[in-house]
Amino acid sequence: MPLSKVLFDSTIELHLDIERTGAEARATIIELLKNLEKELIAKVADGVTDWSKARIAKQLSEADAVIRQYYDDAAGIARDTTTSVAQVSASATATSLSAAVGGQVAISVIPTATYLETLAGNTIIQGAVQADWWDRQAGDVAFKFQSAVRQGLVAAETTPQIVKRVRDVMDLSRRNAEALVHTSVQSVANATREKLFEDNTDVISGKEWSSALDRRTCPTCGALDGKRWATDSKPTNHSMAYRAPPNHWRCRCSCIPVLRTWAELGINMDELPDGTRASMEGQVTDKTFEDWLKRKTETDPTFADRALGKGRAELFRDGKITMDQMISGGKPLTLNELKAKYEKPILSQMKNDAYEIAKSGGRNKGFFNQWDKQKKGKIEKSIKSLSTQVDIHNEKIDNPKNHINKPISDHELNYLVTIYWPKEIRNFKQQIDILEGILGERHHVKK
User: Fold this and answer.
1) Cα 258 to chain center, whole Å?
2) Number of neighbours of residue 94 by Cβ within 10 angstroms
3) Which of 83, 89, 202, 339 has the most CB atoms in a 10 Å sphere around its CB?
4) Are 149 and 162 in contact (CB under 8 A)?
5) What is the pLDDT of residues 346-389, one digit of tens each?
6) Domain extents for the chain?
7) What φ, ψ does residue 59 adopt, rounded to 5°?
């Protein structure tokens, strides 16, 4: 059966939007690691060559703690991003499947919010879960930083030479972090779609590999483009084994569901010529991302400018920038913007995720257990207090200098405004959701 153009377009557009959201997360984490670099350089720039052995050991130990704190923050940003990506991917995929069959068949099996958070945390990314990768990167940076300082001292290098060693370590760390965020986001998005494929085999007969065909497509992914497998991953008319994308670090491939025929769906309708359905808008003929972008722009002239930033799509078509450069240098998409674009009833069913996740023993389970048996008045008082904290922290972000009582550096200020205070707001809001969920559950039980 020809591939549904509705599914093809919706999958590629979602893939593009997730790439843009990944670019936003990468930029945030890169800025975070730049702040880390400044802190580390500040530690060695103050006369490191004159330090005693005891002071060297103390400074390196302190640096290790600083590195791990920054990487904990980076891991939190990545975790929040991939959890939201899983929710949006589930909602958007279910919605596009329903649209592709003209609403004739309900897509009833949708993963719960609790399942999706677990999936985001447990998805294997090139051999390990993302939490383990972040822990490994933190340890690697700590080790290389210590080695850079010690090697510089042994070689009797000057402070500027040792600082250069540290910069080299951090340059590599940022590239590794970028690769991890990109691959984590795509791994979770694809794992979510795979779950929907498995749970809705009454609608889906298989899956087709879609490679991002441009000058940077690797031979392995290029050879897989257009290949199909049944829902149980058995090859269709070829012998290539199936392995869910991404295939490698920074891979941009995805899989598109192949629908069953009208007869297989139990719908009494004639198949259109060549298997093409009216609701599908015809067969897919796009061979490259450029072809797809051109066709989308023909039907919606402002699409490229909205998605990528004015002028960048033209540079891509002219061969002056790659797809990666176009996305990373174009318009990023925040998590809130991604959710707003794909806000559908299915996604709405996943509301109050924090409560459901904590109740099932996931993140914030300790907070849930602490408050589950508390009196209503005490819970309402806590909700009010937490809401006040949200307002206070928003005010801190808007007017940071009004809330700082001691001199701090610009990079420390930037860390508070862009990372620490927003993280605190997210934590407060999750706690509010949990408390409101507890009260809501009690009200439901009473009824």
Assistant:
1) 25
2) 25
3) 89
4) yes
5) 444 444 467 877 887 777 888 999 999 899 999 999 999 999 99
6) 5-348, 355-446
7) -65, -40
